[in-house]
């Protein structure tokens, strides 16, 4: 089943659009709250299309993701009772409970790991608020983790440039499904530990 190749091609076309930075910022913000598509899907093609702007794209993605994370945090902090039915319908209730346990054990470190890795950041932003994680550590862990991730993705993509584009396109299905399997594995592991 080819899923990631067509998505990659579409995002590569969007990367050339004059409003692409707005789309990237919006995608980054809403992904930290509820949207399933990570901003890397737009960030990498945009950095490839305009290598000189890679750091601006990475900064935009980082800042808007942290802002979206703050909205997720507020949802968890102020409206967890209203959000729980949505988490249950979306199939994230068990993951949410496991994340709550991880917050109790590891605090800021779990937020940093969630911000840096491809696991669903939105679950952790809402859980961080619901766990009443102190706001400053939440923001710092999100900023550092998201910043490292997005600057790494954008920088490596811009650095590799046209040399890596055919390789990336050729292996995008393997990479995409590999990340999906990794996410599922992490969620299973979190559920087994919870």
Question: Layout of SSEs?
Answer:
Elements: H1 4-15, H2 20-31, H3 40-49, H4 54-89, H5 93-106, H6 108-116, H7 121-130, H8 135-193
Helix pairs in contact: 1-3, 1-8, 2-4, 3-4, 3-8, 4-7, 4-8, 5-7, 5-8, 6-7, 6-8
Helix content: over 70%
How many domains make up the 3D coordinates? Answer: 1
**Cα-atom Rg, whole angstroms?**
17 Å
Shape, please?
A: globular
Low-confidence stretches: none
Derived structural class: mainly alpha
| Major β-sheet annotation | none
Mean of pLDDT: 83
Helix run count: 8
Beta fraction: under 5%
Q: Give me the count of strands.
A: 0
N-C termini distance: 33 Å
Order of helices and strands: HHHHHHHH
Keywords: Membrane, Transmembrane, Transmembrane helix
Pfam family, one: VTT_dom
Protein name: DedA family protein
Transmembrane segments: 20-37, 57-87, 108-132, 138-159, 171-190
Provide a quick synopsis of the model.
The protein is built from eight helices and no strands.
What are the key terms here?
mainly alpha, 194 residues, 8 helices, DedA_domain
Describe the fold and architecture.
With 194 residues, the chain is mainly alpha-helical. It has one domain. The protein contains 8 helices and no strands. The longest helix is centred in the last third of the chain and has 59 residues. It is globular, with a radius of gyration of 17 Å. The two termini are 33 Å apart. The model has no long low-confidence stretch (mean pLDDT 83). It holds the Pfam family VTT_dom. It comes from Arenimonas fontis. Keywords: Membrane, Transmembrane, Transmembrane helix. This is DedA family protein.
């Amino acid at each position: 089943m080819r899923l990631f190749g067509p998505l990659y091609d579409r995002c590569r076309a969007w990367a050339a659009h004059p409003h692409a930075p707005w789309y990237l910022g919006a995608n980054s913000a809403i992904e930290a709250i509820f949207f399933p598509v990570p901003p890397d899907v737009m960030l990498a093609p945009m950095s490839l299309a305009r290598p000189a702007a890679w750091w601006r794209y990475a900064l935009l993605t980082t800042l808007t993701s942290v802002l979206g994370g703050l909205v997720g945090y507020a949802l968890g902090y102020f409206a967890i009772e209203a959000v729980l039915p949505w988490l249950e319908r979306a199939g994230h209730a068990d993951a949410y409970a496991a994340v709550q346990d991880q917050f109790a054990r590891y605090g800021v470190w779990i937020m940093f790991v969630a911000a840096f890795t491809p696991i669903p950041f939105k679950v952790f932003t809402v859980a961080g608020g619901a766990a009443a994680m102190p706001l400053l550590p939440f923001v710092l862990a999100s900023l550092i983790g998201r910043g490292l991730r997005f600057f790494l993705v954008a920088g490596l993509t811009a650095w590799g440039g046209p040399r890596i584009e055919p390789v990336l396109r050729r292996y995008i299905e393997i990479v995409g499904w590999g990340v999906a399997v990794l996410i599922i594995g992490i969620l299973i592991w979190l559920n087994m530990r919870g």
